[in-house]
Amino acid sequence: MLNFTKFERINPEKRDVLKRLKDYDEVYKVFGKSRAKEQSDRCMQCGDPYCHTGCPLGNYIPAWLKQTATKDPDLAFALSNETSPFPEILGRICPQDVLCEGACSLNTGHGAISIGAVETHISEAAFERGLKPKFSSNKKDGKIAIIGSGPAGISAATFLLRKGYQVEMFERADRAGGLLMYGIPGFKLDKTTIERRINWLLEAGMKLHLNCEIGKDKSSEELENEFDGIFLGLGATAGRFAGIDGEKSSNVYLAIDFLTGIQKRNLGNDNVDFVDVKDKRVVVIGGGDTAMDCVRSSVREGAKSVKCLYRRNEANMPGSKKEVVNSKEEGVDFVFNVSPKSIKTDGNLALGVELLTTSMSEPDESGRQKVVINDGSEYLEEADVIIMALGFSPEAPAFLKSLNVKTNSWGGIETNASFKTSNAKIYAGGDCQRGAHLAVTAAADGRDAARAIIQTLA
Amino acid sequence: MGCNLDLLTSFKDNCGFGLVADMKNRQSHKNLEDAITSLERMMHRGAVAADGKTGDGSGLLLSIPEYFMRKVASKEGVDLPETYGIAMIFAKDLSDIDTFEEFCESNDLKVVLRRTVPVDTDALGAQALASLPNIIQVFVVPNTLMSSKRFDAMLYLTRKECEHKLIDKKDFYIPTFSSKVIAYKGLIMPTHIKHFYVDLRDEDFKISFSLFHQRFSTNTLPQWKLAQPFRAIAHNGEINSVEANRFNVEIKSEQLKSDIFSDEEIAKLLPILQVGSSDSASLDNMFEFMLANGVDFFKAARSLVPAPWQNAPHMDADLRAFYEYTATAMEAWDGPAAVSLTDGRHIGCLIDRNGLRPSKYVITKDDKLYITSEYGTLTLDEDNILERGRLQSGEMIALDLKHGKVLKEDDINDYLKSSQYYSKWLNEDMDYIQEYIEDSFLNTNDYIFDDLEKKQKYFNITYEAIDQMIEPMAKDGKEPVGSMGDDTPLACFSKVNRNFSDFFKQKFAQVTNPPIDPYREKVVMSLETGFGKIHNILTEQPEFAKRLKTTSPILMKEKFDILYSFGYNQSPRYDSYYKNETFSTTFTTDLKASLVKLSAKVVKAVKEDKVSIVILDDRDICESNKLIPMAMAIGYINHQLLKEEVRHSVSIVSVSGEVYDPHMAAVLIGFGATAIYPYMMYATTVALYKRKALSKYELQRVLKNTQKAVNAGLLKIMSKMGICTVASYRNSGLFDIIGLSDEITEDCFEGAYTDLAGLTYADIEARIEKSHINAYIDENCMFPLDLGGFYKYTNGGEYHDYGPATTKAMHNKSASKKEDISDFDSLKELVENRDKKFIRDFFEFNSDKGAIDLSAVESKEDIFKRFASAAMSCGSISPEAHEAVAEAMNTIGGASNSGEGGEDPKRFNTLKNSKIKQIASGRFGVTPGYLRSAEELQIKVAQGAKPGEGGQLPGHKVTPLIASLRHTVAGVTLISPPPHHDIYSIEDLAQLIFDLKQINPLAKITVKLVSSIGVGTIAAGVAKAYADKIIISGGDGGTGAAPLTSLKHAGNAWEMGLSEAHNALKANHLRESVHVQTDGGLKTGMDVVKAAMLGAESYAFGTAALTLLGCKILRICHTNKCSVGVATQDENLRDHFEGTVERLISYFTFIAEDVRNILASLGYSRIEEIVGRSDLLKVIDDDFAKKFDFQNILRRIDGIDTCQKDSNDPFDDNKYEKELLKKVHRTIENPNSPIKVNTEISNLNRSFGTLISGEIARFYGDSGLPDNSININLKGIAGQSFGAFLSKGMTLHLDGAANDYVGKGMNGGKIIINPKHQGQEFAGGGNTCLYGATGGKLYIRASVGERFAVRNSGCISVVEGTGDNPCEYMTGGIVVILGNTGINFGAGMTGGIAFVYDPEKGFVDKMNQELIEAVRIDTDDTERERLYLKRLLLDYLHETESEEADRILQNFRAEIRNFWMVKPKNMTVLPLDPDEGD
Predict the structure, then answer these.
(1) With an 8 Å Cβ cutoff, is B816 touching chain A?
(2) Is B15 annotated in the active site?
(3) CA nearest to A323, candidates A116, A70, A140, A64
(4) Which residue ranges form the domains of chain A, and what is each CATH number?
(5) Predicted ipTM > 0.95
């Protein structure tokens, strides 16, 4: 360990841009054994492991880095999977630069440990060796329903099954995985990785009900009567519009619809909602990870041009820095410091976005810079397809009311600190409870809610 | 128990001592005069009260002055018969004398005279006068016909009976009751003893021998009865293992059979040891008891204070057999000890195995033997001297008065070994387990468990425990090293699963006794363990040799099986003597009742089934069974067996999963386990390496390593307390038990120190329940164990006060604007809301005043003066960090601390100069210039992170800069010894303080201690040794590297030690003389105010300061890879240092302002007003807080709370050298006018040359004056520390001899000592000469004592013989020895060169060959070395006219073949500059 003075930080290798644009396969290659060992070996095994505290799941990062470095991969696998429901997935999709790697003690001039890449390697290599996650063989009486099969739901199910509880999962879509399945493009996350996890849960005894919407396909009364506990992992699935004129035009889309369409097509579903951007001028409004997903998908779909419009400067982008880099590599144009004023339309068809340029104020006390609109700076950005990637809100479906689960002003489910809702039997976590956030926080909520459920059942 | 009030007035004592004897047993008054003169001239070794009269006590144990006694008797009309005895009695209440006389009568003794001893009370100080008892002599004669032997026995029996009867009369004491000796002693200064005891002035008072003693007690409440000598001994030193010895005496008392006394009489004699007496008095009781029962004088002496024999290959086999036989029932009374002893016929002196106390003798041609702590206490005609020598480690010398013969070590050994057929007895009856084993650690069957992971979880074997402790032990065979301090709560406050052993804090030696170095002084250490019964100690019989032996108390399956087979009746090897029974320590409910039940079962088996090996086994742990903590089970059963008087026939063997580090093992052994089979440590190791597919033999190696590491750790823990053998450690209970209820400690751990009485059996059971559920009910699916969090932070693990959140809050927002960060609100909030983690969190303010306006409070600048940085050496931290701290502290008016590694002279007199300069055991960089650059000189006696231990800076971290600061060469490993080799006891500390006050009279002398129960006693002693300031450091202090268990398990919270020290100083009326400082995890104003209220006047910050400079608490300091450039010497990493002075200043401003706000809210305007005001604190109203008893910490006794003196001036004003300084001052003013002075010197003139050297350094730093500027020719015997810290330009010629510490810390100049009697047979200097010297030359044409040139790093020296451990830890310089050396030569020697003349070819065996090699220099390629040696010898001859040097040089071509050159093994370039030879 402590070999940070000997080796530099190395990111996982990316596939050649020209090749990767031709498909939806993952861009990053998984670390090989020796690279993983070398990079793990840089770790200082800090007394205050900031990576571990910077991780919403509190992953035992230094522990599995050490085991990777000292060639005990099975132990690394066990350690990595103890706290996380799907480390190989989060290793791929987490914005490590603002979480563990951002917090890494070496991130001040030495280069953080490539934590995400090692994390992915640990589980992928273990799976190759035939290792699998373990679940309790010691079956317990409690029966828990999980509503929603996204990261929060999968996480809750995983930790409940590990303790031997019976789990049934309800998903209104045709496939399990929620955002992981339909929200995140395949070039970031291969869909088989999700199916693999779902299958293990099924093997462990979970019952999965697809195309099953609560309140429609199964009544809330039935649900409440059949189960000892219920976990709501509904996600935040309602895309947001900017609230400007013309945004209801037929060629203005929500990011989630755009991405889901592509994913369904890729999975071979025949679907009607697919948005074809081939040879079109695409403009994506937003600067987060979803916006990056949209621009990069558009490039792959053969758009004539792809532009990302963001109201702040590059330094203030909320998304993962590496995604911006990847997008640029793949030919995406970024227009910073522009704020959409309206959509210029021709009947039901949008022609482009009317933009105002902005500038950044001096940092305030908290260090945050505000956006200042520059008066009279209006100009038009022409486009054939406009995609709104402005975040998500919870949907707050009607069955919540019949279950006496309270929601707040923005539709989020209210819970106490241990994720219990106003209905003592029902717990909620992830985006539906905290608002749109990261997959890793949803996974942490699902896990912690499961622990709370177990405590009441035990 | 619980309430430690008595600790405030308890004491430890050290001293000066000796004896005078006429070898032909001729009685004379001169003998008495000589004894008194000797005593007078060692007065500086005792302590003196302010009145100049009250000392801590002194006295004489004399042969009965026949003539005088008959004279006074006949004056009273009594004609004494041939046989009579005299009792010397101290009694306030005269009716006690009647009681005494009644006992005499009942034992057939006839009282013929009661004499009031005439005294002159003018000789007494006020304190002594107030407590003056009646001093009465009672003369008795046999009432019936009895042999003189029987008569002596009756005297003894009578005294014991009377003592038992009058046990509650604190003022009744019988100094002696004997037909052979009588004591004249008391609370008198040696100078006044004759004045006080009128008898002693009578010319007819003639004696043939005298033991004498002057006491230095740590407290100021001396008592008449505490004065020494006792009835048979006078002891200088401290018995470190006394707790274990006392316990073991009780065990031995269970079945005594004596030739002298009947069983009924024996019963009347018990207990052997007087309750509540000092360590020395206990030793005296035991020795006297053995003598009274007819045990041979020499055997009794050597069984109590044996020479090291277990690891002494050079020892005669038969002698070793004597010791091995004796050890079956007797363990060493271990610790620094020079003991003079007598039984009336023999008189002798012996010293401990480490040679830690000085004992010097002179034999004269007119048949006198003088033994004293120092040479020169009597002015003797040099021509009359036959021999001037000293006792070497573990040696004894004696006089047989009957035959008028001196018995030296060899004579005594010859007698001992041939007195019985010990070898034969051992051969017949002693079995060694090892001999029945093919090989160990090959059979791993015992280490495979189906439910291993559940067991691991139960035993708290977390991922971290494996990763941080077990795996490193398995890999390296030693305990792992960590860094930074311990910032976790005490086990009793913890909310997570903690090991039971966490309640126990290891005790460690500081000041009154030294820790020892278990690595470099291995020869004295031993873990040898025996199984079997303790037999009658009063006789010797062949069958008493029966023992099963093993080399370590840590067993593995193979050894355990053999041990078991001896005691298992189905085994062919079965021997009922070793009959064993296994008892499971499991329970289901009710911990206390289960404990009682288990113990009853054990006692029954021992009593009824004659079980002698009790095996306590916890392997039955399962889903339904929980465990009684092993330490609790052992402690409880141990005491019950003792109560039932069957402890002597039992060995307790613990099969325990609770042991997987050395601390855990030490706890069990300390409370009575004979051996431990730590199966979970092995099981965990096997499981760990199973995945790595090791071969059987590789697995054997790692398993062996774990045991080796625990063995080494045990030695380390023992040596921390100065204990050498595990037999003397067993039953010692040398722990501070923190947070367990009085009931538990009384039941199980009686005798150990306790504080914060709290958790009950029920609380402990609840904790056990919780970990049981965690292990057996809650399962983790993927990674089955818990992660841990004890050593390093983990979410959900143990709380860390320097956890990521705190560290971030201290780093404070964006690093980009680090210059003006002043917002520490989030830090304050975190600290204030951490909720009952540390003792101070349990207190809230309870002011007796209303708030005042902030403007009325003293300024922040006033408060800054009370701030210091904790000692951090440039070496442990980078120069950048070191300088930033200094600059910040100097800017605000606080003080920075150099740490122990020297400081760049360029920084002196600048803003980067550290006002506090530290003097640590390595003495690195301690030069006159360094000492003179300070305003405060801090003697680091102990360090919070690893009290009682030394340290090591590996060669790869010794950069050229570090090397130059430490006066060595880059790449040389630097070892700091555990003790200061010039502080083995309190009078030694007084001497070092005296030295420092000479070299820098303007500096305050500070002594840094670590919090521990009993530190109050030490603090009082330190104050009496004239320190100006005492630091009580918390056990949580940081470090650049320390063994993990030391970091975690030694040293208490500062709150405890501070309060105890403050109150003890008050109780002894010493608080007004010393300033008190504390440190340990202080972070905010609240911490500072609470520290003030508990008694601290100033406050030091270590880790906090580093954190402000960018430290992220990575805990990797020991790796030299600190990524933020704070704790590294790596140049690339140092570039990453981003700390700034401004940032530190803003942090200290925050603290000071915080303090001001709190003061205002409490209604106080100055810190001074709240120091010691513990009444301004109260325990918070909280259920958890109610569990604990905080009275010891919140105690406030009456008296002055703050220091009232500018400086604590020594009794000795050193007028002698002050006068000389005036004479030579013109040379200092005008360096080109050399001066020569001729004068006389005596042993009363200590630290000679130091005052002048200090004056030189004041103006010229280490550059000093031109060579030979100041020449001083002296005649006589010089006092201690002759030429200490000598500056360049000084030359001291001594025509005579010198005492201990010659040339210590000398930086330049020359010391030449030419005694009249030259050569290796005569002593020219004492112990520990040249300690920490950095330059100059020392020539002595005679021999010197132990530890010559220890830590020498630059001096060139020639002597003609040395004691043991020469050249220890040497890092530079040249040493030539033209005669014999003692053993353990060059232990830890990493630099420098020694030439040893060895015509008898015995030298190589005396080397400690770990680091050094001896090479011949008579070959072609050693021409340079030969030349160097020759030139050096010529110079030596020129200066000393040494006959030996002359002879060698005359025949140099031949003699060169008798020289060895000793050098560190890895040294290739020899630092020999032939010019230095001239």
Answers:
(1) no
(2) yes
(3) A116
(4) 17-128 (1.10.1060.10), 143-236+393-457 (3.50.50.60), 241-390 (3.50.50.60)
(5) no
